[in-house]
Amino acid sequence: MFAGLPELGISNGEDLKETLTNCTEPLKAIDQFQMENGILLPTLQSALPFLDLHGTPRLEFHQSVFDELREKLMERVATIAEGKDEDRYVKLEELLEKSFPLVKMPSIQPIVMQVLKHLPKVPEKKLKQVMADKELYKVCAVEVKRQIWQDNQALFGDEVSPLLKQYIVEKEAALFSSDLSILHNFFSPSPKTRRQGEVVLKLTQMIGKNVKLYDMVLQFLRTLFLRTRNVHYCTLRAELLMSLHDLDISEICSVDPCHKFSWCLDACIREKFVDAKRARELQGFLDGVKKGQEQVLGDLSMILCDPFACNTLVLSTVRNLQELLSQDALPRDSPELLLLLRMLSLGQGAWDMIDSQVFKEPRMDLEVVTRFLPAMMSIVVDDYTFTVEQKLPSEEKTSLTYPTTLPETFSRYIQENRVACEIGLYYVLHIAKQRNKNALQRLLFTLVDTYNDMAFGDIFLHLLTGHLTLLSDEFGSEEFCTAVFDNFLLTSFSSKENVHRHCLRLLNHLHQKVLVSYMETLMKTLEPPKQFSSQVCVCPSCKLSHPH
Fold it and tell me: Which of 84, 132, 289, 408 is the most buried (most CB within 10 A)?
């Protein structure tokens, strides 16, 4: 407990023990020890007996003086560090040399840690001593740990890894939330709100202004994204940069070539729309990638692969298509639409680009613009024609029935092209948001076969189940239940546990609206087999298993 005192020429308990063992007059020896090791203030000696008369133990007095002096010294250390003196760090290093031998003493340790914290470059020997001692490493300030981490990637990785795991768990929990709503879904929190999350704040604090640590975290995120294909790592990459931007950490923002692009995109995500002015800015960044700097495309693609960015780009695409329809214009004539497709294509090619290390924008399939989008717009026209027909007086109506098939080009492209599939899925969400039952029933069956099974991904199913709550009354019809469950969700629930869980989320919310006879069949069908995880449990209200 008092290790280090003899090194500084200060007596400790062992010295007192030796003195008392070898002396002939213990009381005199104690007085002598107190004189030599007490507070060396002549005027104090005459005042101490007054404390004795008040029954105040000497230990209590000395402890209170010590605590006061310690606080004053710690304040003085901070004042010196924040001052302008050229030799301020020399003074702190001298204090560190004197105090470091006592670093294991609990009462002195805070002073040593305060000095270490305020030194921009702690002597290497001291850093190694702190790193080698688990207890010291645990209590030292993050400013000191940064200096240790920047030369110890494995140790930094051990600190960061649990936070990255926690982040993914939180994102996946949000996708499987039992709250189904179109107003409060995965994409509802604003970018600034998301950046207040525990993991982002902790990582931002751990990095501070240290570019080397920032680069390490980005490398961890790239590696994990490659290993798992989990797009939430792309979200964290963007959130981390913008969190440092919020704190005005110019040391990092000024050297990250993606900073201005991310800043502009972040504003679009906040509005959930890419307007014409910002579209021009984003295009300027992409067109401005110089020869020899193509590697930045890897980071830009990862930022565009963030589901929040993708959500904004596709919502903007659907809105752009609606405007084109109202103007009788073609998709290929819209520069804004072509830019949105270019960014979608770059974002969705992120994994391939980082994996292959070939930093080149993926070539966009022009037929998405010239064939797929017109086919999708023809579906909108079909729907509009039928709606107008229904409003006509009976004598003017024709025998027009609602179309049940889809253009072959539409179905083929959502199977074969990643960008087309993403747009097609969001069009389905757009139809559900409009409560358009006929169009939804027409489209759902084609989602059984989509590019890379994107229709059975958690993000789309999370959004679709929320949107379906707007059509809750339609679940009283067997025809609608068949379209949603038999023709789409139940086609893959047995092979995909996540689909099973999303079915149960939906039914947990809507079970009172579902046709009773159909509900009984669903209960038997959706009873989870034994090999399914413990993430589903039986709900007492609807007697159905559903996700925790």
Answer: 289
Please provide residue 404's backbone torsions phi and psi, each rounded to the nearest 5 degrees.
-110, -20
Please compute the mean of the pLDDT values over residues 160-180 and round it to a whole number.
95
Encode pLDDT of 128-164 as tens digits.
999 999 999 999 999 999 999 999 999 999 999 999 9
DSSP code of residue 368: I
- Other Cβ atoms closer than 10 A to 360: 10
CA distance from start to end of the chain: 49
Look at the block and give the residue holding tokens 């609807």.
542
Cβ atoms of 114 and 95 within 8 Å: the answer is: no
Look at residue 28 in the predicted model and tell me its pLDDT: 83
Distance CA 126, CA 134 (A): 14
CB atoms within 10 A of CB 348: 24
Do 334 and 320 contact (CB within 8 A), yes or no?
yes
Segment 483-502 shows an average pLDDT of: 91
Q: In terms of C-beta density within 10 A (0-12 exposed, 13-18 middle, 19 or more buried), how is residue 261 classed?
A: buried
Burial group, residue 61, by CB count within 10 angstroms (0-12, 13-18, 19+): middle
Residues 6 or more apart in contact with residue 488 via CB below 8 angstroms: 444, 445, 447, 448, 455
Contacts of 509 (CB under 8 A, 6+ apart): 178, 180, 465, 469
pLDDT digits (tens, 9 = 90+) for 96-140: 998 888 888 888 899 999 999 999 999 999 999 999 999 999 999
Query: Would you say how long the chain is, in residues?
Result: 548
Q: Residue 171, SS3?
A: helix
CA angle 464, 465, 471 (to 5 degrees): 95
For residue 531, which amino acid is it? Q
Q: Which residues contact 513 (CB under 8 A, 6 or more apart)?
A: 472, 473, 475, 476
Q: How many CB atoms lie within 10 A of CB 76?
A: 13
Structure tokens at 547: 């996700």
Distance (Å, rounded) from C-alpha 239 to C-alpha 193? 10
- How far apart, in Å, are the Cα atoms of 476 and each of 135, 160, 479? 63, 50, 9
| Three-state SS at 327 | coil
Q: What is the rounded CA–CA span in Å between residue 142 and residue 121?
A: 13
Per the CB < 8 A criterion, the answer to whether 139 and 109 are in contact is yes
Going from the C-alpha of 390 to that of each of 108, 186, 380, 387, 403, the distances in angstroms are 85, 36, 16, 5, 14
Between CA 81 and CA 526 the distance in angstroms is 65
Nearest one of 229, 313, 304 to 261, comparing CA atoms: 304
